[in-house]
Amino acid sequence: MIASNSSFFKLVMGSGVSLFLLSSFTDSRKVKIENTGLPKNNIETVLTINHSADPIEEDLRTALLNFGKSLLGTRYIYGGTSKKGFDCSGFVYFVYKNFNINVPRSTSQFKNFGKEIAIDQVKKGDILLFLSPTRNVIGHIGIVSNADGMQSKFIHSSSGKQMQVMISNLSHKSYTRRFVKAIRVLQ
Length: 187
What we know:
The longest helix is centred in the first third of the chain and has 15 residues, at 55-69. Helices cover 16% and strands 32% of the residues. The two termini are 33 Å apart. It contains three helices and twelve strands. The protein has helices at 55-69, 88-97, 173-176; strands at 2-4, 8-14, 31-35, 42-49, 81-82, 85-86, 115-117, 127-131, 138-146, 153-157, 165-169, 179-184. The protein is globular. The protein has a six-stranded antiparallel sheet. A four-stranded antiparallel sheet has the order 1-2-4-3, with no helix packed on it. A two-stranded antiparallel sheet has the order 5-6. The model is unreliable at 1-52 (pLDDT under 50). The chain folds into two domains: 2-49, no CATH class; 55-184, Alpha-Beta Complex (endopeptidase fold (from Nostoc punctiforme)). By secondary structure, it is α+β, with helices and mostly antiparallel strands. Keywords: Hydrolase, Protease, Thiol protease. It comes from Flavobacterium frigidarium.
């Protein structure tokens, strides 16, 4: 028997009863297991699950990132928005569009888009904005792939010497000095 509300699950196991765990409801970092002292043939186990985030949101962030990673190595093409090639904003646009999430097509339009968040609060799937290497305007964009403050990694379509979709580290000096802000589109 499973009785549940948003953060509490009670599983009662007796002889001949199988226990099924649903991975979408478990967060191994926050599971508390208690034995209530019932007789051995009727063991009651209480699981308290405190999710730090909505599991549906986390699934979406993971799916979005996995889709973006499936495009690693796709060549850079100025103005590109397809698997034939991407520019940086075309890549972000294409990835989000795959999940029916509308984001601007142009990097400059991200300046006032989404919710600005502190870099220490970024999650995978959030967006990083950078200055252009040659002008003092928003000129580059990427999607957080590994959230860790200023050590975060991001996936983007690079017009640098690699000229492809790749993963870079925000801590690299060429990105750190150009970093403007992080924004959240997924709520």
